[in-house]
Amino acid sequence: xxxxxxxxxxxxxxxxxxxxxxxxxxxxxxxxQHALAVIFALAGAAAAIAMIPLKTDVNVLHFPLGSAFGLxxxxxxxxxxxxxxxxxxxxxxAVIFSVDYMRGExxxxxxxxxxxxxxxxxxxLVLSSNLLLIFVFWEITxxxxxxxxxxxxxxxxxxxxxxxxxxxTQVGGIGLLAGALFLYAYQGNYDVPTFLAGAARLPPNVLxxxxxxxxxxxxxxxxxxxxxxxxPDAMEAPTPVSALIHAATMVNAGVYLLARFYPAFEAxxxxxxxxxxxxxxxxxxxxxxxxxxNDLKRVLAYSTVSQLGYMxxxxxxxxxxxxxxxxxxxxxxxxxxxxxAGAVIHAVHTRDMREMGGLGKxxxxxxxxxxxxxxxxxxIPVLNGFWSKELVLEAGHExxxxxxxxxxxxxxxxxxxxxxxxxxxxxxxxxxGGPHVHDAGPAMKIALVPLALGTLTTWLLAGSxxxxxxxxxxxxxxxxxxxxxxxxxxxxxxxxxALAVVALGLAAWWQRSKLAGVxxxxxxxxxxxxxxxxxxxxxxGVVRLTVASAESLRTTHNGVLNWNVxxxxxxxxxxxxxxxxxxx
Amino acid sequence: xSLPLPLVAAVAVLGLLGVGLLGLLVTxxxxxxxxxxxxxxxxxxxxxxxxxxxxxxxQTGQTMALTVIVAxxxxxxxxxALAVQVRRQFGTLDLQALSTLRR
Lengths: 584, 103
Hints:
By secondary structure, chain A is mainly α. Chain A has helices at about 5-25, 30-50, 80-100, 110-125, 130-150, 155-185, 190-195, 205-220, 230-235, 240-250, 250-265, 270-290, 295-315, 320-350, 365-380, 385-400, 400-425, 440-455, 460-470, 480-490, 495-510, 515-520, 525-530, 535-550, 560-584, and strands at about 60-65, 70-75.
């Protein structure tokens, strides 16, 4: 039996090695590329799963990188191993799905190399316990997401979506880097467990800077308010990549960061409130946007943003367990939804739901699994989404302000509404697409079935999941068995309120023709929502400002050597002057 | 009266750096720019040796100076080779005429 250090290295290294091999094979032998990608993704998943019984609460693998960078250390505790398993297993299913979805595409080497590199880096991100290393992996995942979103690099929309994702996540990365440097300045190393154990040693203002820097980093990565705009645009990527970004890797990183550092920042004034506000605003706003979108993948993207809002909200109210449990449920059912949406899009060659409809007959399996996933998203008992969402709402009811809790309740109702809307637009009604619909291929079905089974069953793991996370949860968290936990959720008054709101959402879709007057009255809100509440205009403004200032500074970049030397000399004089004045 | 050696060296460093920078500042000829850069680097070399002597780490200073000599030689060889190619391709060595940046 290999030890945990080897397994940790393997679960990062195997996907990376696979990435290198697939790339080296070149694009002459697509079957070999498919096979290699699937084998290495599955091997990485096996290594991650093998870490489960060996989890530990102390740093392993002390590999020195020199005094400035500290030790390469991994902390494979419950939280880290859980996220590593999610990244590798859901990632492998996305890779298996790609075998059918990407068949016949050009440049498979580039595709699989980045997908595998992405999976390995995400594992590295969650396992590392050196903050600088976390930052490095954080940026690698940003780079991979950029490359994959822009995979169809002859499509200007895909390219601009990739650049947008890269820029926005870089803004967040600055927050993380600043946090890492502050930690080094005040602690002398980048060790995360040391920091978590004694965060109070840092001056309060520095700790607050770090806390809000990390919140910005997490919001940018997890597409939270006000950085949510990159995720819907990221839908230009091939659909398995969307599943990967939304369920397995990228967006979980922000939630992980907040959950990991919650013990250190808990006491920072207003930090928890800010986290709650970010989560609640995002959850509600994204749910409204999901109702008015007609692009199947964008609806799912907004639903991801909204569900991530639930997780962030749960962290802000102290419900780390609730947030991670919802992350588990969401990873499973959102991967299921995206992959089945991919099967639908692959079949009808459009993402516009107005051109779908009546697809249930041609693709029965996809219909069944997508409805399972949709109902889990809507929070219908007894699917996994129901239990975890109720847990989040319960945590919020106990630990958060009332207005935020009401936001989340309304969000839950809207979730049910838009879920029914997209399910019925895709699978029911008259067929509106052409006759050339073909059913999903075998590899797609192999990837979909385990996810559907997972959606039906992962809630049964509630108790053991709590034990597994164990020491990663804040002190005083009461670890309950599955039965006790489920009983508590099922008997909590909050659950019934939430269920009533969800039922109201379902009823609203059922009776939508009678509610036409209400819809008419709210069309202004809908119009604003379809323009993403002005955030796109804000982005465009920032871009215009940047371009304009670059244009106006053009004269300083004239490429004349003498000017450049002059600038260097002036810079030298300024630095010397600052040193002389500072030293005095 | 004899001047102390470090003082002489320091003056020489400043002189070489000044001449090199001045050359880069005023010349428009690519070859002259390479020559000016050589003078500048020689100043830096002397500064390294001097710093080694003043800090008592003579070996470190001289080792770094040797490294710089090697790197600097390669740089100037490549730069001059490029200058020859530039002259053949564009027919001029005027740096301002060679710049293709929009102004």
